[in-house]
Amino acid sequence: MSTAASTQIHLASRPEGWPTPENFRTVRVTLPELAPGQVRVANAFVSVDPYMRGRMNEGRSYVAPYALGATITGGAVGRVLESAADAVPVGAVVLHQHGWSNVVQDDAATFQVIPELPGVPLSLRLHILGMTGLTAYVGLTRIASLQPGETVFVSGAAGAVGSAVGQLARLLGASRVIGSAGSAAKVALLTGKYGFDEAFNYHDGDVSELLTQAAPDGIDVYFDNVGGDHLTAALDAFNDGGRAALCGAISTYNAEGPVPGPDNMSNIVTRGLTLRGFTLGNHLDLAGEFQQRMAGWFAEGRIAYDETIVDGIEGTVEAFLAMMRGANVGKMLVRVG
Amino acid sequence: MSTAASTQIHLASRPEGWPTPENFRTVRVTLPELAPGQVRVANAFVSVDPYMRGRMNEGRSYVAPYALGATITGGAVGRVLESAADAVPVGAVVLHQHGWSNVVQDDAATFQVIPELPGVPLSLRLHILGMTGLTAYVGLTRIASLQPGETVFVSGAAGAVGSAVGQLARLLGASRVIGSAGSAAKVALLTGKYGFDEAFNYHDGDVSELLTQAAPDGIDVYFDNVGGDHLTAALDAFNDGGRAALCGAISTYNAEGPVPGPDNMSNIVTRGLTLRGFTLGNHLDLAGEFQQRMAGWFAEGRIAYDETIVDGIEGTVEAFLAMMRGANVGKMLVRVG
Predict the structure, then answer these.
(1) What whole-number distance in Å separates Cα of residue A159 and Cα of residue A50?
(2) Contacts B272 to A, Cβ<8 Å
(3) How does residue B253 score in pLDDT terms, banded at 50, 70 and 90?
(4) Do A268 and B262 touch (CB under 8 A)?
(5) Any domain includes A288
(6) CDD domains given for it (chains A, B) (predicted)?
């Protein structure tokens, strides 16, 4: 038993509009010796995700707002360094929600031991084989009730969730998969590596017009990561009985005031549409089913992925801000020392 | 066999914004002798409904837009005057969609013979025991998946659909029913005759604040007849997992341009809400179940209703315009001849 140094990223102040480095503080602390029942974990990868922006605000969000002056919590994967709990032995790989630090210790019950999969990088447990993939799966199956033969549109399609949505939609039987992204390089990635039928760069014009060109026969399912004019475009493109899974609205996260909703909500009535929002915490009962199916698809080589990696826990804020600007391709992660 | 005079109300021009009498034309025609397979019907009551405003516009609506220079179609109930079809004999009571005229003739297949119910006025077959009641039933059961013990909010609650929603919600097990209406008299009607737990006049202040006062513990189901600030208020008041049945948005029907949607759409994600629109035509499979249950409740004296009646087919436009202004209590109807 010993003490240990930990570098943590704290929320220093609540962002107004776009976050800046000044909203965060890097803090070095000495962790005390483990108490009985605790474990100490060296993180391998730490996740930065769009939803975190919401938790930086005051008021009701996914869960409680982040506390000022405390480590920003979120998904991470690491290995047990020291243990005072038999169930979580030294050397075990664990998933946890302790967030933005390089070394963390807490009660063993707050860490989930996961089996190491031969040839599978640990980072994937934070995205395509983890919460990111599960988010795509829940949205398509439970929330949007995707049926074989349908046309699916996903926004933010080159992002972590979006690229999983496009591939899972195909594997679940969609006949046509359309994505939007914010650069020509990302569009090429979508129609190439990720096998989308159509993709467009939303900077190239009016999103409704671009979507109509990409989906002349309309869409049945929309997986929304973006909100704003993308949701409006989807409401115009929906066939009767269309369903939207609303996962997030990165276009609005940094707005300093209320953002007006789509100006074509009347389509919801006339076309019999369903808009359903979700956060993953209410749908973890699908995790087992997802892991089984996804492991099979992954083993068959049917799942592509990208990662954008920033090295060092001190780069976490930079990684988060770059992800909010859309600088990442695939999952944005911090690789810890 | 003989010819017959018919007075019809035609759409003369498409309204821009609020409709005016000049958008309509009263036309007197002579109907020819019946062809084989046709019947002639003298209407008893003709329905004027909010959705008709949508069909007066060009472009995609519930169904095709109304044709210019033709009778405005919609629900009506009448009695067969002459018949050249065995299945629809003289004297039978029929429901049909031929709309705004006093006498109509067409193929027998376009008329639905319904049994006369002792002591039940024919007018009710156009509302509480007809499409209006079915609309409320479909919205609460299939669209919003109302569960016993939940809190229901309905806007436009003193209207035809709204007053049915409030009563059916209670009969289906809601623990608390809240309504909004546009006058103090209507509010008194809601909490009196219709048995709502709470009601408010939306002219009395900010709708979100009024709803929060009426539903301090939040709402689970919202039946939307109004749209606009009522939908925004509901999104703020929803408990996690709340569901909205979007039936119409009378607040927006006469807008001359696009109407921005709610500025709090993010609640859909964070609270896991579902917004689902519907038009009755896709849910007529529930008609049998509805009629059976509703007839039972009605016979037990558990259903109250109101009608606002305008006399004479020439008064149809006046009735429609008054309904759009909210001048009616309960179902607005035209009593013919």
Answers:
(1) 10
(2) 276-279, 282
(3) confident
(4) no
(5) no
(6) PGDH (cd05288)
CB contact under 8 A, A263 and B264: no
Task: Tell me, yes or no, whether A86 and A8 share the same domain.
Answer: yes
Contact A272 B279 (CB under 8 A): yes
Establish if A42 belongs to a structural domain.
yes
**pLDDT at residue number A256:** 79
Q: Nearest by CB to A62, which of B265, B270, B274?
A: B270
For residue A79, the SS3 value is: strand
Q: Mean pLDDT, 10 residues at a time, over chain A (337 residues)?
A: 94 94 97 97 96 85 81 97 97 97 97 91 95 97 98 96 97 98 96 97 97 98 95 97 92 82 94 96 95 94 95 97 91 94
Containing structural domain, residue A93: 4-126+306-335
Euclidean distance between CA atoms B106 and B98, whole angstroms: 9
Of A248, A263, A269, the CB nearest to B277: A269
Is the CB of A270 less than 8 angstroms away from the CB of B227?
Answer: no
- B124 is written with which tokens? 């009710």
Indicate if A148 and A277 belong to the same structural domain.
yes
CB B247 within 8 A of CB B223: yes
- Using pLDDT thresholds of 50, 70 and 90, give the confidence band for residue B118: confident
pLDDT at residue A108 in the model: 97
Residue B106: band (very low, low, confident or very high) from pLDDT cuts 50, 70, 90: very high
Give the mutation candidate from B212, B267, B270 for the A interface (greatest A CB count, under 10 A): B270
Query: pLDDT tens-digit profile of B8-53?
Result: 999 999 999 999 999 999 999 999 999 999 999 999 999 999 889 9
Residue predicted with more confidence, A17 or B1: A17
Closest residue on chain A to B239 (Cα): A60
Chain A CB contacts of B249 under 8 Å are 265-266, 269
Given an 8 Å threshold on Cβ–Cβ distance, is B279 in contact with A269? yes
| Residues 6 or more apart in contact with residue A41 via CB below 8 angstroms | A78, A79, A80, A81, A94, A96, A98, A103, A104, A105, A111
- CA A21 to chain centroid, in Å, comes to 21
Nearest residue in chain B measured CA to CA from A250 = B266
Residue of B nearest to A276 (CA): B274
Helix, strand, coil fractions of chain B, as percent rounded to 5: 30, 30, 40
Q: Which residue of A has its CA nearest to B144?
A: A274
Contact B269 A252 (CB under 8 A): no
Contact B23, B11 (CB under 8 A): yes
In this predicted complex, what is the ipTM? 0.90
- Which residues in chain A have their CB less than 8 angstroms from residue B271's CB? 277
The tokens for B126 are 């156009």
Q: Is B118 in the same domain as B193? A: no
